[in-house]
Write a structure and sequence with these properties.
Rossmann fold, aminoacyl-trna synthetase, EC 6.1.1.16, metal-binding
Length: 487
């Protein structure tokens, strides 16, 4: 088995990975979506990155020995605001919030399914872990009570706050001092705080506008950070193997998770490895609504807003994997076109209907801290060894690798078909039947050594925007021709 090495943000080193408790298998937690609107393409990056890691871990340790938890944040100020804006008073506000989060979660699932991502082992909703009736069941209120009892949290004006100075190691993940964090963060100024860096564990709720739960500190709701501590602790244990998310979550979210988790459980660490994917930019600029380049996964899949056309999830997936996950990525239409051509080439040569089984070279690349650029280079090298399209050991191996990595031939082919039909209509209405007739006539002309006629037909097709690809069967010497819309 290939030795898996992963980069740990906490220790700033790449080191060998082994499960903390082999009997429990590999346990991984990744911060999931806040469900109030469509997920944007930046949200797609951790979903795809950690899906590849999930697939790799399942291959190395067995599917039954990997537990992947990706949470759903369904209690949040943005959710409350959006639900209140659309509330008609025909049902309770809590029902409106649930309807909004259910609808948004369904949209998220449809989008990430289209990206070829597996569903995680567990997908807990934060609202299910605020207060659980079983005395032994871990929840947010119980963790907060522990923090207060241990002297790491205090109650002021209906709020419960984590006492940051009570944890000397605070800031270790971000590697910044308290003064640096205060200077670089948007710190809420509140009279009930003992220290500017103290953060909210529990806050009061307005029952007319906000959801809430009864607690020892009054009717209220949890802060964002405590949610992940409760869900990961309940489903994976006090200390687990891997915690993942975007680099933007290092501070304050993950830093605060570590603080409250370690102080509540009396542990030195929360996760053995912290993994973070890099930022995403769009056409060289930071993605933002003010710049007009904020793009959702749904818009990429179903509209022509980016690059003048819609895209299939397999193209988005490959475009995301061409850059190493820890590096920043520039999302461009040119990159999507390049990924389209690569997949078109791979699927044209790969043998269809292969089981999802990766080759050692692909596993070796992924085992080196998910080195997806090297993995793609290995696939290109394998592709170059194929002599007959869709035939032979190399073609079968390429097909197995594509299936393992989550690429779907049928989904890609259906998208290509609809795309080509639209382009053909725009080019003057030439249809597939006429293209095949002209190709057959060209092959007949070549066989009769009438190369002038053969070239004339080729030029006619090229003028109509159709590219021809000739291949010769090495066994029979017969020439075959396939076509695609030139881009």
């Amino acid at each position: 088995m290939a030795e898996l090495k992963l980069y740990d943000t906490l220790t700033r080193e790449k080191r060998p990975f082994a499960p903390l408790d082999p009997a429990r298998g590999v346990r991984m937690y990744v911060c999931g979506p806040t469900v109030y609107d469509f997920a944007h393409i930046g949200n797609a990056r951790p979903v795809i990155v950690f899906d590849v890691l999930f697939r790799l871990l399942r291959h190395l340790y067995g599917a039954d020995h990997v537990t992947y938890v990706r949470n759903i944040t369904d209690v949040d100020d943005k959710i409350n605001k959006r639900a209140f804006e659309r509330w008609t008073h025909e049902r309770p506000l809590t029902a409106e919030i649930r309807a909004l989060t259910d609808q948004t979660l369904a949209q998220f699932h449809a989008d990430v399914d289209a990206l070829g991502c597996l569903r995680p082992s567990h997908e807990p909703r934060a609202t299910d872990f605020v207060c659980r009736p079983e005395p032994s069941a871990l929840d947010m209120i119980k963790i907060i009570e522990r923090l207060i009892a241990r002297g790491h949290a205090y109650v002021e004006q209906g709020h419960v706050l984590f006492d940051v100075p009570s944890m000397p190691a605070y800031g270790k993940l971000a590697r910044r001092s308290l003064d640096e964090m205060v200077a670089g963060a948007r710190v809420d100024v509140a009279p009930y705080k003992r220290d500017p860096m103290d953060f909210v564990l529990w806050k009061p709720s307005d029952p007319e506008k906000e959801p809430g739960w009864e607690s020892p500190w009054g009717f209220g709701r949890p802060g964002w950070h405590i949610e992940c501590s409760a869900m990961s602790g309940a489903l994976l244990g006090e200390v687990f193997d891997i915690h993942g998310g975007g680099i933007d979550l290092v501070f304050p979210h993950h830093e605060n998770e570590i603080a409250q988790t370690c102080c509540a459980f009396g542990t030195e660490r929360m996760a053995n490895f912290w993994m973070h994917n890099g930022f995403l930019m769009v056409e060289g600029e930071k993605m933002s609504k003010s710049l007009g380049n904020f793009i959702t996964i749904r818009e990429l899949l179903a509209s022509d807003r980016f690059g003048g056309q819609n895209w299939v999830g397999d193209v988005l997936r490959l475009a995301m994997l061409k850059t190493h996950y820890r590096q920043p990525i520039d999302w461009t239409a040119e990159g999507l076109n390049e990924s389209t051509n690569t997949l078109d080439d791979w699927f044209r040569l790969a043998a269809p209907d292969q089981p999802a089984e990766p080759s050692p070279a692909v596993i070796g690349a992924l085992a080196d801290d998910l080195n997806t650029p090297k993995m793609i280079a290995e696939l290109h090298a394998l592709r170059n060894r194929i002599r007959v399209p869709q035939q032979g050991a190399e073609a079968e191996e390429l097909g197995r690798n594509l299936a393992f990595l989550g690429f779907d031939r049928a989904r890609f082919a259906a998208w290509q078909k609809s795309r080509e039909h639209a382009v053909l209509q725009a080019l003057g209405g030439i249809d597939e039947t006429e293209i095949e007739r002209l190709i057959a006539a060209r092959l007949a002309a070549r066989k009769a050594r009438n190369f002038a006629e053969s070239d004339r037909i080729r030029d006619e097709l090229v003028a109509k925007g159709i590219a021809l690809m000739d291949a010769k069967d090495p066994a029979t010497g017969e020439l075959t021709t396939t076509w695609k819309v030139a881009r």
